């Protein structure tokens, strides 16, 4: 069967060259007579992969020396608890800016984690409108939405809300907030490496791999060394960020194949010209989609304010749910999958992550134009 055009939100499309490299090396990695999955994580063969992946991350993002780059097992949801467990001292609080469903989840988990440790998590701002199932998120936050506590351990935000299609720092009118001396912590799971980012603006960046840089089971963490050093020591060692920082993310057995695939994806990304080239590619892809949506206002409707429209997850509605169901069915018949919106909001969602090829967007946009004409 030919490969489909994969628009899933995560796990998501991986670059074909990265997959082909894995296929070619699957049974015999580096002439060793075994798969990379069979190698000891203490052996020189795997360690070379591990080191290269860490080095590529530093190179692509220009990570300053004052930061550690870590691989953590699990997913970003684990970090929802692990970050406040590490960074919020007893008697202090952490601030949370909520602009969508993943920000809600991070805030909820932080409240539970800090309560166990004699600390707290506070809502510093939200862009949610309505209540319960009717709650809507249609924009990134501005300075007017935010009240940061000067004594906060950090301010947490979600850079791209995958479900609602809301993203910071796409448009100059919606930059990342200025938290002053309070460290900024960002969940970048669904827009990590979509464009260059000034790492020095953040105290900590974390990203689950399965959306934009690899398979599930690995989280990339980029964190200021002083925050790691000051982190709590009254939590289990396996949850302390200093543990992977002091052991090159090899304290215990890492997800070796996941990190190997991240290495492959990063090498592919570097070969395309790095993050500057990727930003141009991604903006062009999303621009085509929004162009079709805006050219057919009587049929397609994007609920997100223009300044906050995501480049990674383009969401829109059709006149009726029956139209949306038919849209997904017909697209699938043409080899385009993963277009159904999240169950909590419905509609259509097109994930245009780094690995999604521009030609796929051309085909999807042509389908959308034809579908709108047929009504």
From TrEMBL:
Q: Name one GO biological process term.
A: pyridoxine biosynthetic process
Q: Where in the cell is it found?
A: Cytoplasm
Identify the pathway.
Amino-acid biosynthesis; L-serine biosynthesis; L-serine from 3-phospho-D-glycerate: step 2/3; Cofactor biosynthesis; pyridoxine 5'-phosphate biosynthesis; pyridoxine 5'-phosphate from D-erythrose 4-phosphate: step 3/5
Question: Residues in domain Aminotransferase class V?
Answer: 6-356
> Any note on cofactor binding?
Binds 1 pyridoxal phosphate per subunit.
Query: Which parts pass through the membrane?
Result: none
The main enzyme category here is transferase
Name the residues that bind L-glutamate: 42
The record's Gene3D superfamilies line, in alphabetical order, gives: Aspartate Aminotransferase, domain 1, Type I PLP-dependent aspartate aminotransferase-like (Major domain)
Q: Where does pyridoxal 5'-phosphate bind?
A: 76-77, 102, 162, 187, 210, 252-253
This entry's Enzyme Commission designation comes to: 2.6.1.52
Q: Main location per UniProt?
A: cytoplasm
Matching InterPro entries, A to Z?
Aminotrans_V_dom, Pser_aminoTfrase, PyrdxlP-dep_Trfase, PyrdxlP-dep_Trfase_major, PyrdxlP-dep_Trfase_small
Arranged from A to Z, the UniProt key words for this protein are: Amino-acid biosynthesis, Aminotransferase, Cytoplasm, Pyridoxal phosphate, Pyridoxine biosynthesis, Serine biosynthesis, Transferase
Q: Which reaction does it catalyse?
A: 4-(phosphooxy)-L-threonine + 2-oxoglutarate = (R)-3-hydroxy-2-oxo-4-phosphooxybutanoate + L-glutamate; O-phospho-L-serine + 2-oxoglutarate = 3-phosphooxypyruvate + L-glutamate
Q: Which GO terms describe its molecular function?
A: O-phospho-L-serine:2-oxoglutarate aminotransferase activity; pyridoxal phosphate binding
- Write down the required cofactor(s): pyridoxal 5'-phosphate
Q: Which GO terms describe its cellular component?
A: cytoplasm
Q: N6-(pyridoxal phosphate)lysine: which positions carry it?
A: 211
Q: Does the keyword Transferase apply?
A: yes
Please give the subunit comment from the record: Homodimer.
The role this protein plays is: Catalyzes the reversible conversion of 3-phosphohydroxypyruvate to phosphoserine and of 3-hydroxy-2-oxo-4-phosphonooxybutanoate to phosphohydroxythreonine.
Instruction: Give the family per the record.
Output: Belongs to the class-V pyridoxal-phosphate-dependent aminotransferase family. SerC subfamily.
Protein name per Swiss-Prot or TrEMBL? Phosphoserine aminotransferase
